[in-house]
Design goal:
Layout: E1 2-7, E2 10-13, E3 18-26, E4 32-39, E5 46-52, E6 58-59, E7 67-71, E8 77-82, E9 91-99, E10 107-108, E11 112-117
Parallel strand pairs: 2-11
Antiparallel strand pairs: 1-3, 3-8, 4-5, 4-9, 5-6, 7-8, 9-10, 9-11
Length: 118
């Protein structure tokens, strides 16, 4: 079992930035892929970014150039830097993990709320 804990959400104004964190614990292995998703009210969950622990991140076209995913050099933690936030970025942001090559994300965090006011 892998546990994921997100933090860093909050209320910001349009144009501001936030950095979300996701800490992995439990039976963690560098063979896991970590990803960020979000879900806005009344909408389906949306993929944002993912990276294998040892690789480079990939991004959804909708956030490429505005969001950036990185990993901590010491802790089993990844970050999602959210820049130039817009009201439509308001959502619950989730961290997820799957074994590299697995078809679905198996482990999910509880989510952190990001609210962007206009």
């Amino acid at each position: 079992q892998v546990q994921l804990l997100e933090s860093g959400g909050g209320l910001v104004q349009a144009g501001e930035s936030l950095r979300l964190s996701c800490e992995a614990s439990g039976r963690w292995s560098s063979n896991y892929v970590l990803a960020w998703f979000r879900q806005a009210p009344g909408k389906e969950r949306e993929f944002l970014a993912a990276r294998w622990w040892g690789g480079d991140p990939s991004y959804a076209d909708s956030v490429k150039g505005r969001f950036a995913m990185s990993r901590d050099k010491v802790k089993t933690m990844v970050y999602l830097q959210l820049n130039s936030l817009k009201p439509e970025d308001t959502a619950v942001y989730y961290c997820a993990a799957k074994w590299k090559g697995a078809p679905k994300y198996e482990y999910w965090g509880q989510g952190t709320q990001v609210t962007v006011s206009s």
